[in-house]
Amino acid sequence: MTVRNGMRGALAGAIGGVAGGAVKLVCEAIVPPRPPDREPPPGVLAAKIARRADGRTLSKIQKQRAATTAHWTFSILSGAVHGALVEAMPSLEKSEGIPFGLAIWIGMHEILLPLTRATPSLRKLPLSEQLNECVTHCVYGVSVERTRRIVRSFL
Questions:
Q1: Backbone dihedral region of 117: left (phi > 0), alpha (psi from -120 to 50 degrees) or beta?
Q2: Torsion angles phi and psi, residue 96, rounded to 5
Q3: What residues does each domain of the chain span?
């Protein structure tokens, strides 16, 4: 893989990340991943960071903005990483993005977020909520991969 191809792959993946992030939001609007009274994990995490950094308490709007910023930033950056990895290991393309989506789900929702207490422990989360996150992350991965392929064909 050349650096140029890696950059093209990362760009195509980042654009795929935008598409995947949008698709995930639509899925969550149709089938919400958590009860409406529970804040999105990125907002909870941002509030914890602000409190530790300088003792601030974030308002509801600040938490929502933090959650939105985290969602899009993570979607785009992880898509870019996926795009670069596919350039380095073309066999990843055959998986349609499903292992990528599963890796994001496991890494974030099953490991990192419970460890940081941004979500309840896995024992306290209903199975339906975990399955929702699993499925929507697979849909995210497929959306990123399909978009990446289309964009990459033009680069």
A1: left
A2: 60, 15
A3: 3-154
- Give which of 136, 146, 142, 6 is closest to 71, Cα–Cα: 136
Angle subtended by helix axes 60-88 and 3-30, to nearest 10: 140
d(CA 118, CA 46): 9
**Residue whose entry in the numeric block shows the structure tokens 């990362």:** 10
The model scores a pTM over 0.85: yes
Within 8 A by CB and 6+ apart from 121, the residues are 114
User: Which amino acid does the sequence have at 134?
Assistant: C
pLDDT digit string, tens, across residues 141-155: 999 999 999 999 998
Nearest to 59 by CA among 74, 72, 46: 46
